[in-house]
Amino acid sequence: MIIKKKNQTKSDLRSVVKMKKISCSPRKLRLITDLIRTEKVEDSILKLNFIKKKGSILIKKILLSAMANCKNKNFEKDISNYNFYIEKILVNKGTQLKKIRPAPKGRGVKIRKRYSNIYITIIGKIN
Q1: What is the dihedral of CA 122, 43, 47, 30, to 10 degrees?
Q2: Mean per-residue pLDDT, 98-108
Q3: Which of 25, 26, 39, 103 has a Cα-to-Cα distance from 78 of 20 to 30 A?
Q4: What is the pTM of this model?
């Protein structure tokens, strides 16, 4: 069963990108995704160029991939007439790499390397 949102029309273009096992913690990525949520894709890419964090580079690559996916899916349509918006961004917790590092007095300290999963949905609306 497909549920359509009220404001969505048939002429809208949609692209979904999933990227898993990103080597950046979800907490750090959420700081960046909160800045660009529900904005134009072009504006969000410009914003990401000026953020000096590792996650901004990763999210920018994912957004460009979503745009390329949309162009490849709808190659018969003229994409230049569409404005692309970020409809939804989810940053979820991925797997954890656990190591033990030696500490003083024979103890061991756990090191947790956190990974995350990102789901981005962009939608294109006609000008």
Answers
A1: -30
A2: 96
A3: 39
A4: 0.82
